[in-house]
Amino acid sequence: MALTEKQELYISRYLKDVAEALHGHLGPAVQEQAVAHLRLRILEEALKFAGDQPIDDLQLLGVLNQQGPAAERAEVLIRMYRLEAKTGKTAAAQTYAAPHAKPNIPTEKKETKAEEKAAKSSEVPSPSNVVWLGVCQYIARSLSQPLWIIRALTLLAGLVLAPIALLVYSGLFLFLNYSGALPEKKKVSYFRCGGHIFITAFFLVLFHLAGKYGLQGIVLAFEYFLEQSIQLPSLTDWAWLTSRGDTLFFWALILLLPLALVSALPLSKEWALSLKRLTQAGVALYALLIAAGLASRLAGILIEFYSEFTS
After folding, report:
1. Residue 97 above 60 pLDDT?
2. Percentage helix, strand, coil for the chain under 3-state DSSP, each rounded to 5
3. Cα–Cα distance between 212 and 294 in angstroms, integer?
4. Cα distance between residue 5 and residue 185, in whole Å
5. Cβ distance 217 to 38 under 8 Å?
6. What is the pTM of this model?
7. What is the Cα–Cα distance from 209 to 89, expressed in whole angstroms?
8. Rounded CA gap, 191 and 177, in Å?
């Protein structure tokens, strides 16, 4: 049974309180064994309580409350292990299964469980169970609304306001994840997030400057080899990069930087790789547009020179 980080913290705090109450009454080795047995007992009770479904925080707290206060549980363990030391009977083992003990499962049941495990591992999750970062689930639970409605509204916002929707979604996830409001706190690498944004912005700026000053470099090269100044002709349709280059650069930043940020968040490997490749494809497309703009401007200049030469 998989527990969230918060649930593991609940159990660890309870066991720590019990261990402090046991200190001085049992030997270190016996105390460690008692705490380990108690942890296994808690996990067994949680498994019985939740069944095949993941246990939530309130259910786990109910299981811990059933164990009683830490001081009282420690007194029970002290009496149990002292009785075991006097009588030589494994009283603790009768109440708590040893951590390393494995139940004696018949071969048929082992095979059945193995088949069920293999079937679950190969089962494709349904769309309703797929979780991206958990933001929609949190909103649906907070508003007491069906999850599919929140996801549909989020998808609609993404189609209408893609960059803003991605930024809002990322900001909500970072806030909820930091505050511990999500069921499972995910590890976020802020260095990775900043690195993705920086690298994407760096290449966009590099291509923008290449398009802005590339033509001037070509003119300087002509003047250097021809040893005379060149008066560029006035172009209209051929010089679309000069008039629209800044706008194109603005939209490239707006569209690709949010994608770079989301691709660095703790998504599944498939989603992270897909968004990373989508960002790379966007940068490559921007580079192709810059190259096409430079080629268009250069072609216009050559055609204009040829027209003047043949006239």
Report:
1. no
2. 75, 0, 25
3. 9
4. 7
5. no
6. 0.53
7. 82
8. 16
Torsion angle (degrees, nearest 10) of CA 92, 94, 97, 100: 80
Mapped onto helix, strand or coil, the DSSP state of residue 23 is strand
Structure-block tokens of residue 37: 């047995």
CA nearest 165: which of 173, 142, 286? 173
Give the up-direction half-sphere exposure of residue 56: CA atoms within 13 A in the CB hemisphere.
3
Question: With b meaning 16 or more CB within 10 Å and e meaning fewer, what string describes 202-221?
Answer: ebbeebbeebbebbeeeeee
Encoded tokens for 45: 């009770």
N residues, the chain: 311
Taking residue 104's Cβ as centre, other Cβ atoms within 10 Å add up to 6
Task: Copy the structure tokens of residue 185.
Answer: 């706190």
* Selection from 219, 185, 199 nearest residue 297 by Cα: 219
**Alpha-carbon distances of 239 from 209, 218, 231, 233, 296, rounded to whole Å:** 16, 15, 15, 11, 7
Q: What is the distance between the alpha carbons of residues 163 and 285, in angstroms, rounded to a whole number?
A: 17
Q: Is the dihedral of CA 78, 82, 84, 85 positive or negative?
A: positive
What digits encode the pLDDT tens for the residues 37-96?
888 888 888 777 666 677 777 777 878 888 888 888 888 888 888 787 777 655 444 444
